[in-house]
């Protein structure tokens, strides 16, 4: 049975997922031949809640996202943080310099009370992460490298970029 792969997004611009789709046709066909993509909102409507490998894009910025991410962690044998937002919190962490209430009022005005927000945090602040694909967005070469390593049951050999900082 092929490994079942799922892509999920939290607070993000979805550029990392789009970039994952931007593979050379030959690479894409190779990967599609090696895995079953069972959940990928941007490309298919059929979705399964049973998967082996979960790619997580985006940072965690709402209370409700914590339980959603924990559920993914329970289901996935391998969980990969995809992109700077997931790996470090990314650009979303800019909001951490301000009071949440002030930000909500600034964006939503009188409707601010309808929204909730927590300080932005990376995926590994909530659950254990098995592999990181860094970059904003990551390079397709690194994405392919990680997927191939996982399919071979190996730990991907990727550089730990010193320019990335945690929130
Ligand atoms: Fe978008 Fe960059 Fe965040 Fe990826 S890491 S979701 S490209 S802002």
Beta strands, count = 5
How large is the count of helical segments? Answer: 6
Overall mean confidence score, pLDDT: 88
- Taken in chain order, the helices and strands follow as EHHEEHEHHEH
Q: What ranges have pLDDT less than 50 throughout 5 or more consecutive residues?
A: none
The strands making up the biggest β-sheet line up spatially as 2-1-3-4-5
> Would you tell me which CATH topology applies?
Rossmann fold
Write out the CATH superfamily name. NADH:ubiquinone oxidoreductase-like, 20kDa subunit
Description:
Helix content is 33%, strand content 14%. It has 167 residues and is of the alpha/beta class. The protein has a single domain, classed as Rossmann fold, CATH 3.40.50. Strands 2-1-3-4-5 form a 5-stranded parallel sheet. Bound molecules: iron/sulfur cluster (SF4). Iron/sulfur cluster binds at residues 12-13, 15-16, 57-58, 83-85, 90-91, 136-137. Keywords: Oxidoreductase. This is NADH:ubiquinone oxidoreductase.
SSE blueprint and pairings:
Blueprint: E1 4-9, H1 15-20, H2 25-34, E2 36-40, E3 53-57, H3 63-75, E4 78-82, H4 84-88, H5 100-108, E5 131-133, H6 140-151
Parallel strand pairs: 1-2, 1-3, 3-4, 4-5
Residues 12-13, 15-16, 57-58, 83-85, 90-91, 136-137 line the site of iron/sulfur cluster.
